[in-house]
Design brief:
Layout (H helix, E strand, L loop, with lengths): L2 H21 L3 E7 L6 H17 L2 E2 L2 E9 L4 H13 L5 E4 L3 H13 L4 E3 L15 E3 L4 H14 L4 E7 L2 H17 L2 E8 L7 H9 L4 E5 L7 H8 L6 E3 L6 H7 L7 E4 L15 H15 L7 H19 L8 H11 L5 E2 L4 E2 L15 E6 L2 E4 L2
Helix pairs in contact: 2-10, 2-11, 3-4, 5-6, 11-12
């Protein structure tokens, strides 16, 4: 073979290799969660949920999904720093995270500034915008629905005066504000607004004020392990009335720490927690059972929390939107990030483990009331209630 022919063959090979390379590029996901610190009882399940997602689907449209997972140590400033690192250094196409509402808000602020989409796995109140566009959304049910459903149950049980005790942060604000709004409409009085820190080890002072208000029931605005504190403190003070909570308490560490004090508590949650009890016609049953199978394969144990399922649903949203975004741009580019953001807001009737998703520009939330059921803790297990 002449040098000219050999050179032509090499050039052709290089062009072919270059074309193949440009046609395939990993979709890079930055997962920020709390693997340590006071919110780790929530953050660890999120990590396990993403692992289940990777077992369920490891590529989108032929492009492999690469996950870079970082621990924010339950620290808001760390969450913000890690978001910036993942965007600037690792060139991620999308962010998922984190375990606390305040940390999630910090991530969303950074990502919006840098025009990278965020699929949230905690509730949010307001979202920042960049050039008139929001870059974040969440797979979690709106706090108005989470709390409204349990306040409706309070009304059905004839409660008149309800005490509130919850975190002294944005999550506590969400539960209290939405609880009061729902209670006002139904003629229920919220008689206290007691708060405590996520890392606090005692709520004795706050519980004394709750007891002194002589409530018919109590609304818990905590989450994870920190959400157990009011239960044990109320039991120690002899309170035997009903206590109501949100999906933020659907966590094995909460059940372990609250123990007998939480027996009979009623919480709202996504259908995943009672998926085996759902009728076959429920849109979340088929994917819910697939999630449980993938979770078992990925983590070696059965799923027993609601948080990992949020992360799995974030994975489903990414897969659904990613297919359409790939037709517009190549991963690793600003154009792909923008397309992915747009296509997440085009997700329509996507059946997830926690509900059916339809995102719109008017709201960061993608679910409706199909995403909630009521469960009761009985014998240390969550059972379908309504």
């Amino acid at each position: 073979m002449s040098n000219r022919i050999l050179k032509a063959a090499l050039v052709a090979g290089l062009f072919a290799s270059s074309a193949l390379s440009s046609a395939r590029a990993d979709i890079t996901v930055g997962l920020i969660t709390s693997m340590s610190g006071p919110v780790s009882s929530i953050g660890i399940p999120y990590s396990k949920g993403i692992k289940a997602g990777q077992v369920y689907s490891s590529e989108i449209g032929g492009e492999k999904i690469k996950v870079i997972e970082l621990d924010d140590t339950s620290d808001i400033s760390n969450a913000s720093k890690l978001a910036r690192k993942l965007i600037e250094e690792d060139k991620v196409d999308v962010l998922i995270g984190t375990a606390g509402a305040p940390g999630s808000a910090a991530i969303m602020a950074v990502a919006t500034e840098m025009k990278v989409p965020v699929i949230g796995i905690t509730p949010v109140s307001t979202l920042p915008k960049n050039d008139g566009k929001t870059w974040a959304m969440t797979v979690v049910q709106p706090a108005s629905d989470m709390v409204g459903s349990v306040v409706t149950e309070m009304k059905a049980e004839g409660l008149k005066n309800v005490a509130f005790i919850g975190f002294s942060d944005s999550w506590g604000d969400l539960v209290y504000n939405n609880g009061k709004a729902a209670a006002d409409k139904l003629g229920i009085n919220i008689v206290t607004n007691e708060r405590y820190g996520r890392a606090d080890t005692s709520v004795s002072g706050q519980v004394l004020k709750v007891i002194a208000s002589h409530p018919d029931g109590v609304l818990n605005g905590g989450s994870g392990t920190g959400g157990a504190l009011p239960y044990t403190a109320l039991a120690d003070r002899g309170y035997r009335g009903p206590i109501f909570g949100t999906p933020a308490l659907i966590n094995p560490d909460f059940v372990r720490l609250a123990g007998a004090a939480a027996e009979g508590t009623i919480c709202s949650t996504g259908p995943v927690m009672v998926v085996d009890q759902l009728p076959d016609s429920n849109p979340s049953k088929k994917i819910g059972l697939a999630f449980k199978e993938a979770y078992q394969k990925a983590n070696g144990v059965p799923s027993n929390d609601g948080f990992s399922a949020y992360a799995f649903d974030a994975w489903l949203v990414l897969n659904d939107a990613g297919k359409r975004a790939l037709a517009k741009a190549k991963p690793g580019t600003p154009e792909f990030r923008s397309a992915l953001r747009d296509e997440i807001y085009n997700v329509h009737e996507l059946a997830g483990v926690h509900g059916v998703y339809n995102f719109t520009e008017a709201s960061p939330y993608g679910t409706d009331m199909r995403a909630l059921v009521l469960v009761k803790l009985q014998g240390g297990k969550w059972n379908f209630y309504k």
